[in-house]
Amino acid sequence: HKDLLDVTQLSGEDVRHLLDLAASFQEINRRPVKKVPTLKGKTVVLFFVENSTRTKTSFDVAGKRLSADTYSLAKSGSSLNKGESLKDTALTLQAMGPDVIVIRHSSSGAAAFMADLLPCGIVNGGDGWHAHPTQALLDCFSLRQAWGDSFAGRSLLILGDIAHSRVARSNVHLLHLLGVKVRLCAPRTLLPAGVENWPVEVFSDLGRAVRDVDAVMCLRLQLERQQAGLLPDLAEYSRRFCLGAAHLELARPEAKVLHPGPMNRGLEISNEIADAPASLVLDQVAAGVATRMAVLYLLATRNDGGNA
Ligand code: CP
């Protein structure tokens, strides 16, 4: 592949290959990888038109661990704020000769637009409500560390603001591809249109939804994306949909908890669960570096006899 735009372009074999590669970048001979010369001479641009802590930093760390040169362009401080178009900004970045551009944008389809326009590799670092492929891949990497290769037949509950979540869309597809039974739990106003066509079981009651699952993925209530008049009452939302210790006791004894971050503690996930041994939240961050090393490697070396 020239680009990574969505997990829908990946086969199960692609995913296994990528996760194996990520594991090999995390540790060599049981020692953490701090720096290898693999991408020396390659250039990665981090083009973040929407805010990010984890995705942007971990792509930067990933590129640097592989010895690529990494450069950042954010909306703030760029000529986007003087009205320059996405197309002209993209062509300007391309003229500087990057091998890969990672783009985050509030518009669904922005990464595909860049991929059609430019010859370099494009990674979708999250576009609107549409897709966040490296998040879903790193979530599967974290789950594989907990479950080994036994994904088929496991069950995972995605809890919270699913309507506005690119993380949910990418994870539903990828987890279903790997044989996981996916449940969703959200208030009706935070379920996406057409959810009846998704390969999931939908619940409105958290106590029922969480029963006997192997993992719960809590999602941030995306306050900045709520439609006027549809923002839930926050106290009521927290009372019905905030994952607490009593809920987790209804899940399988070894059940894990994920959250892509940033967390609204006390709104969709309680403090005690966010910091509990069952929480994989910081493992997900570490997995993000390894997974993004694999993605950058595959795209940046695709013309050098690499495995992409
Ligand atoms: N999970 C995630 O995408 O986090 P950031 O918005 O901080 O990158």
Automatic annotation (TrEMBL):
Q: What is its EC number?
A: 2.1.3.2
Q: What class of enzyme is it?
A: transferase
Which Gene Ontology terms cover its molecular function?
A: amino acid binding; aspartate carbamoyltransferase activity
The entry's carbamoyl phosphate-binding residues are: 54-55, 104, 132, 135, 261-262
Q: Quick one: which pathway? A: Pyrimidine metabolism; UMP biosynthesis via de novo pathway; (S)-dihydroorotate from bicarbonate: step 2/3
One BP annotation, GO: 'de novo' pyrimidine nucleobase biosynthetic process
Q: Which UniProt keywords apply?
A: Pyrimidine biosynthesis, Transferase
Q: Where does L-aspartate bind?
A: 82, 166, 220
This enzyme catalyses: carbamoyl phosphate + L-aspartate = N-carbamoyl-L-aspartate + phosphate + H(+)
InterPro entries in the record, alphabetically? Asp/Orn_carbamoyltranf_P-bd, Asp/Orn_carbamoylTrfase, Asp/Orn_carbamoylTrfase_sf, Asp_carbamoyltransf, Asp_carbamoyltransf_Asp/Orn-bd
Ranges for domain Aspartate/ornithine carbamoyltransferase carbamoyl-P binding come to 2-144
Q: Name one GO cellular component term.
A: cytosol
Highest rank taxon of the organism: Bacteria
Limits of the Aspartate/ornithine carbamoyltransferase Asp/Orn-binding domain: 153-299
Q: Which PROSITE patterns match?
A: CARBAMOYLTRANSFERASE
- Role: Catalyzes the condensation of carbamoyl phosphate and aspartate to form carbamoyl aspartate and inorganic phosphate, the committed step in the de novo pyrimidine nucleotide biosynthesis pathway.
Kindly give the PANTHER family that the UniProt entry links to this protein. ASPARTATE CARBAMOYLTRANSFERASE, ORNITHINE CARBAMOYLTRANSFERASE, MITOCHONDRIAL
NCBIfam families this protein is in? asp_carb_tr (TIGR00670), PRK00856.1 (NF002032)
- Which protein family is named in the record? Belongs to the aspartate/ornithine carbamoyltransferase superfamily. ATCase family.
Q: How does this chain assemble? A: Heterododecamer (2C3:3R2) of six catalytic PyrB chains organized as two trimers (C3), and six regulatory PyrI chains organized as three dimers (R2).
Q: What is this protein called?
A: Aspartate carbamoyltransferase
